[in-house]
Structure formats: structure tokens, C-alpha cells
Amino acid sequence: MKISKKSFMIMLAAAMLVFTGCSKDKEEPKQSPAEENQQDTATEEKQADQTNDEQQNAGTDFIVKAKPQRIEHMHGIGYPGNDEGLYVASHNGIKIYKDGQWFETAAEKHDYMGFQAVKDGFYSSGHPEEGSSLKNPLGLVKSTDLGKSIEKVAFYGESDFHFLSASYLDHSLYVINEQPNSKLDAGVYVSKDNAESWKQVALNGFEANTFGMIAVHPDKGDTFAMATKEGVFASNDSGQTVKENGDYDMVTAAAFSKESLYISPVEDQKIKLVKIDQEKEGVELPIPTLAYDNPITYIAADYEEQGRLAFITILNDLYESTDGGQTWKQLLVNGKIK
User: Fold this and answer.
1) Model-level pTM?
2) What angle do CA 220, 178, 121 make, to 5 degrees?
3) 68 exposed, middle or buried (CB, 10 Å; 0-12, 13-18, 19+)?
4) CA dist 241 to 12, 32, 270, Å?
5) How does residue 280 score in pLDDT terms, banded at 50, 70 and 90?
6) Phi and psi at residue 109, to the nearest 5°
7) Average pLDDT over every residue of 224-238
8) Strands 187-191 vs 309-313: parallel, antiparallel or unpaired
């Protein structure tokens, strides 16, 4: 499918609307500072003092207990294979949920976009933290030490990839390039050699009017699915050909486990989570009731621990399951770490 620059930008702009919610007016509940802090100030001050003491005792540790805070912008979740925690990529660095507690990085608090967990760490894009010597934007970067350092993989100082995905094991990389850079025009691209070379994805058979999130199979880098406002489209040949998978009106998020594809369709003003096994019809999983203006924006499946899943919503409610989506524990309410 050939896509002109003009039509590509229109399609991408429409896709971005999916991930800013189904309602035009409500992204986060609006509260005054007095309403927000009246009940929690004393408790949070006590917790902050406690956290500061723990961090001082920890010396120069890079991963520290998270201070009380509200995570207002989340740009991806995942389970990197070099740690046991659930990682949340935010506007202010990486947050990690592990052993029933929240942690964060003591430094390198970059605005990570397009976050993707892999076997030995994570790929990402985005913008450096204020005061950093790194160029803005970051381009395509990778970390194998929990975010303590980042490898400049490609397009450093050139591009910010909001839509980025990678295979967990073979590191096949897919990006939606919004603006031309030194090597790529606007479009969808795949790399099989750690970003040394790129091939534009043909997307023959793609019938949607929007692009959206790409989910790559963890150990089959030729297989991916794209969530769009017109449904989910899948490919087994690195995107040269695609076909619609199931009959869904709108899909806001997608992720693969070893055996299944998880998607979040919106149907009849209901937010759903559906598990699709190979050549089988999708099975709806029981999830907590979500308001129509609070769709699921990201899904993650742990490659190393079967049945461990997580999803986050546009209002920053984070849920995790350890039994394949039959029961859920809420880890964040409106992004708040207490």
C-alpha cells in the first residue's frame, strides 16, 4: 500500500486520537490543589521523609524506593527480561513495580516514549531530562542496565518515535516515522539488524484509515499486529501483507505473549480485553469495569512468567494479573504512588 506524505500525516493524526481517549473533553479528572492534597498531605509528607531516609541509607543505588507522586503521563509498560519488575515509562523516567513496592531511578529521568521491553533490557525513544547533556530528541535508544545508561542506536538528535515496537528475543524493530529524517521518509519501517538498515513496510491489504500501536510477537519477529480505529490488522511477513484479525470496530492497544495476542477493543461504549489464540476466535477476559472515557492504552505480557499480564488506561489506572487475566490487582489509581 503506497502512502503519500500528506495522507500519512492525516492517518497518523487520526491514530493519535485513539490514544488520547474516546472523549474530546476529558483526559484526567480536574481537581484543585486543595482538593487533591487536603486528605493526603500529612501522610505523604511522612512517607516522603521515610523514603528520603531509606535512600540516604542506600548510598548511591540507582534503583530507589519511589517517592509519593502522581505519574501524569505514561508512554508504555513492559517486563524486561533482565529484571523481575513491571516497568512503566513516564514523562519523568522509569517507574518499577516489584515485590509489592514501587521503585524509580535516582537519575536518568528521561521522558521515555515508545517504550518496549526485550530480553536484555528495553528500547525507547523520547526526550532527555532537563539539564541532561544528551541531544533532543533521543532517537532510538536501548538500555541493558535498568536505565542507568542508554545506547544511542539510531537517529540520535533527529527523531522521536511515539510508535515503536520490538520482538522480545530476536530484536526485530518496527517504527512509525512521523517526520522524515536523514535515512527514512514518513512511513512504517522494519529493521532486522539492530537499526543498521531499514525497509519500508508495504502493508498490502491494509484497509484501515489510521495507523496505531504495533505489537510484535516475542520470538517471531516477522509477526506483528497493529491496533487501529478500524480494528486490528496482523502480518506474518514483516508487514508486506496484512489482513484484518477478527471483526472489531476500534482497538486501542495490543500485545503478544508466547501463544496469544491480547487486544483491547471498544464496543458499544464498553472497554474490553480479548485474548486471541492462533486460528481461534477471541475470548473476552474478565476485567474491572472501565468508563468509556478511560480506554486501555497499553498492554504487556511477561515472556518469562506465563499468565502475568498488565494494562494501563488513559486515566493512568494500572492493573496486573498473575493468572492469565482471570483476576486483577490495581497497582495505580489515577497514576498515584503513595
Assistant:
1) 0.86
2) 40
3) middle
4) 20, 50, 31
5) confident
6) -90, 65
7) 97
8) unpaired
